[in-house]
Amino acid sequence: MIRHGCILKLLLLALNVALLMSNSYSQGDEKEYIVYMGDRLKDVSSTASLYLSMLRNVIGSNVVPDSVLYSYRRSFSGFVVRLTEEQARNLAEIGGVVSVFPNKKYSLQTTRSWDFLGFPEQVRRATMENDIIIGVLDTGIWPGSDSFSDAGLGPPPSKWKGSCQSSANFTCNNKIIGAKYYRVVGPVKSPEDVLSPLDTEGHGTHVASTAAGRSVASASLYGLGSGTARGGVPSARIAVYKICWSDGCYGADILAAFDDAIADGVDIISLSVGNFFINDFYEDPIAIGAFYAMKNNVLTSNSGGNNGPSAGNITSVAPWLLSVAASTIDRKFLTKVQLANGNLYEGISINTVDGANEMYPLIYGANAPNKTANITGSISRYCRIGTLDPNLVQGKIVVCDTLTNGNGPFSAGAKGAIMHYDFFLKDVAFSFPLPVSYLDDDKGIDILRYINSSRNASTSIFKSMEINDTVAPYVVSFSSRGPNLLTPGILKPDLSAPGVDILAGWTMAASITGVPGDNRFSPFNIISGTSMACPHASAAAAYIKSFNPTWSPAAIKSALMTTATPMKAPTNSSAAEFAYGTGNINPLKAVNPGLVYDANQTDYVKFLCGQGYNKITLWIMTGDDSTCSNATNGTVWDLNYPSFTLPTASVSTPIDQIFTRTVTNVGDPTSTYRSVVSAPAGLSIQVVPEALSFNSLGQKLSFNVTVGGSISRSMVSASLVWDDGVHQVRSPIVVYVVASS
Length: 741
Ligand SMILES: *[C@@H]1O[C@H](CO)[C@@H](O)[C@H](O)[C@H]1NC(C)=O
Ligand SMILES: *[C@@H]1O[C@H](CO)[C@@H](O)[C@H](O)[C@H]1NC(C)=O
Ligand SMILES: *[C@@H]1O[C@H](CO)[C@@H](O)[C@H](O)[C@H]1NC(C)=O
Ligand SMILES: *[C@@H]1O[C@H](CO)[C@@H](O)[C@H](O)[C@H]1NC(C)=O
Ligand SMILES: *[C@@H]1O[C@H](CO)[C@@H](O)[C@H](O)[C@H]1NC(C)=O
Ligand SMILES: *[C@@H]1O[C@H](CO)[C@@H](O)[C@H](O)[C@H]1NC(C)=O
Ligand SMILES: *[C@@H]1O[C@H](CO)[C@@H](O)[C@H](O)[C@H]1NC(C)=O
Ligand SMILES: *[C@@H]1O[C@H](CO)[C@@H](O)[C@H](O)[C@H]1NC(C)=O
Ligand SMILES: *[C@@H]1O[C@H](CO)[C@@H](O)[C@H](O)[C@H]1NC(C)=O
Ligand SMILES: *[C@@H]1O[C@H](CO)[C@@H](O)[C@H](O)[C@H]1NC(C)=O
Ligand SMILES: *[C@@H]1O[C@H](CO)[C@@H](O)[C@H](O)[C@H]1NC(C)=O
Ligand SMILES: *[C@@H]1O[C@H](CO)[C@@H](O)[C@H](O)[C@H]1NC(C)=O
Description:
By secondary structure, the protein is of the alpha/beta class. Strands 19, 20, 21, 22, 23, 24, 25 and 26 form an 8-stranded mixed sheet that branches. Strands 9-12-8-15-17-18-27 form a 7-stranded parallel sheet, with helices on both faces. The protein has a 5-stranded mixed sheet with strand order 13-14-7-1-16. Residues 373-374 line the site of one 2-acetamido-2-deoxy-beta-D-glucopyranose.
């Protein structure tokens, strides 16, 4: 899987080179398979011998205890083993085995952000916050960070059953109460991969400190983003599950971390990892793990992915996941470039080096090909690594015809680079190993003209400055969009949270770009991704739970969704709800949502039945002996989801669909909510009954929403708000033309 933070790396990979992604770790004809066996076995002591005898049936007598690479046994059961494809098929036939799927690779996809959300540092806090444990599944953690000081925190809450894998470089404290690393598959590939929960990458430290970091004054990245760095729930505890390594995050490790985190007693799981492709629920370690988490009353918050802005690229789609899109905040980083002729240009980037008073000669990448490598100007204009001639670019600022990670000019000894491109990632600022400004295409062409017309073209690149982006928040271009290709009747993403240019803690074991030769080590770093949005939502969920400890994962998710701030459609995009879900999180409002749309395992099983999951695949998903019957066959329209989504065959096809929903009163014992509908012309929306009168807390009342008429565009947005004068419980209603395949 992919860490959803390394977007520059990933997007450039997708843009520039064919996406070569080996999906599984293989050795000869064999590869790693996950054998998933449903619910936890009652007699855990016999699992080892059971697994071995199953394998002997399929492989033969040469099976040894070491053949089982990992056993899941604490929250569900199954194991990891190396098999040929044929052996995997045979194993899947054995009674008790519910699915056998390859161990695929997934990836990882401040300060200001919480204030921007209207969630100030001095917000009202529940004493329960000390007892909330957030499980962070990521690259590990840097325990030396001030963000993880345990000053003033008592011992871990008594419900905690986890452990700390301490080593010479790693110890836990009363903030980081547990830590463990997972590497089921093969040896690690790089010296940076230390076999310890220690974070040698930075991503996990960033995510954990965004969710639950203590307040650290005067934090910044070399003066940029300066302010107090803090997590959303600074008193909550962190449990670390290191599942990502330099070669990615494997499904077997993700499942192992879920198996432990659920049994360890975490309250919320924060998972900033995903894949490029949608797997069906029963072959997706995130969907399986999160289903068990839900069964055990733990909400999983998951990054929506960085594969936007194409429609339908979101892969975090299970209804029991909270899928988070990335939005901007009001702080934006600009980097000025001034030519020797006085012309001044503003680009986007994060540049920590103050070069305002230093002019360096300019050279166009096309005029500096690495001839030793037979490179021509038509290649070197893009400044990719190995294509530039160091003798020509050394000490100069290179102009490059595309956005790259900067390693090309950096390794060739350039002083800086000016990159330009006509579209692509203009709404996010990246760090590079050398001073860089990323300009619009027309400004880049302007500078190339200047190079042509000047005998001694030179320029300076300023340190980045912060400006107030008054149009924030909007969903950033890279954030994965809906619709949901697996379950078209469920809106995804669910909501959005800040994920652009976020300042948070960093590891001291890696530089801020991780590029060899970059010697900038900083306790804080500014990075972007739905990976950064996810921990904001995780913390908001933890905050809700600290006030409402008995709420189910679905109730917490509903509170976040129905109180989210509706957003503007992103720049020139019809994506609307497919970009932002219900809107931007509002943690303060979410604590007191008035009504919640609750759901539990029984509801999700009905939903799966209605999706046509037959008995065996249903069993695969729920791990128990749930079967579908007429009584349990719910349609997707009846799943008690806090948003309403209706795919239709084409524009102007007549629509007629009833949604049934039940809301639970968690506001004032006696209250009357009136329905307020807003719908575009042509679409008729009726709510029956129109008002709901409650006379006790916890009371549940049902209503129907009938959507009729037709739509005139490929997607239209409407909404239903239940309003009692104090609470506005808002759900978007989306009707769209489903692309025929
Ligand atoms: C971890 O500790 C070992 C020995 O104590 C040391 O050799 C190693 O460099 C340390 N690794 C990091 C990343 O600090
Ligand atoms: C996103 O969707 C587009 C169009 O559906 C597809 O061509 C592309 O491969 C997808 N990209 C990723 C990264 O999944
Ligand atoms: C460059 O091209 C020349 C002539 O075609 C060839 O002899 C040489 O091996 C090539 N060098 C590299 C690095 O490919
Ligand atoms: C230029 O090409 C040669 C031959 O491929 C290579 O050894 C060298 O590293 C390249 N220079 C740079 C700066 O990448
Ligand atoms: C710069 O000069 C070259 C060679 O004369 C020409 O091909 C190119 O189009 C010029 N570039 C610009 C931006 O004017
Ligand atoms: C070229 O520009 C650089 C930097 O502005 C300056 O130091 C140098 O003297 C100039 N050379 C000529 C020949 O004008
Ligand atoms: C940006 O401006 C708005 C008002 O226009 C203000 O409320 C907000 O605090 C400003 N943000 C920053 C980062 O200065
Ligand atoms: C939006 O995109 C369409 C084509 O996709 C284009 O014709 C139109 O000019 C764009 N509008 C804006 C405001 O950028
Ligand atoms: C789910 O909730 C319903 C009531 O809404 C209840 O009847 C059912 O037993 C619950 N299922 C589980 C598995 O707790
Ligand atoms: C449940 O509904 C789905 C979709 O309508 C259908 O395919 C399936 O056969 C039904 N199952 C039962 C047990 O009625
Ligand atoms: C289930 O529903 C179908 C049609 O809705 C009906 O034909 C069938 O008899 C029902 N089965 C049972 C056991 O009630
Ligand atoms: C909702 O519609 C269903 C039919 O689909 C009906 O049985 C039920 O009584 C309706 N509920 C309300 C509250 O009107």
